[in-house]
Design goal:
single chain, about 75% helix
């Protein structure tokens, strides 16, 4: 029983790390390739890219629901 809980926690932590890499790393690479050259902005770190991704997700999330009028 205790072993299953520990395995579940490890799986969740592993998935969080994988998701952070999948979303943070491409943003960091694209930012560092484009923004300093185009707009003279500074380079960003991986954790800054993850933070930007989180902020963009909060700000630009769509909460529109379509209701059926039947």
């Amino acid at each position: 029983m205790k072993n299953n809980i520990i395995e579940g926690i490890l799986v969740v932590v592993g998935l969080i790390i994988i998701v952070a890499l999948l979303f943070g790393l491409p943003l960091q690479i694209l930012w560092n390739l484009l923004m300093p050259e185009l707009f003279n902005l500074p380079y960003i770190s991986f954790w800054q890219a993850c933070g930007l991704n989180l902020i963009a997700g909060i700000l630009f999330r769509s909460n529109v629901t379509i209701k059926n009028k039947n």
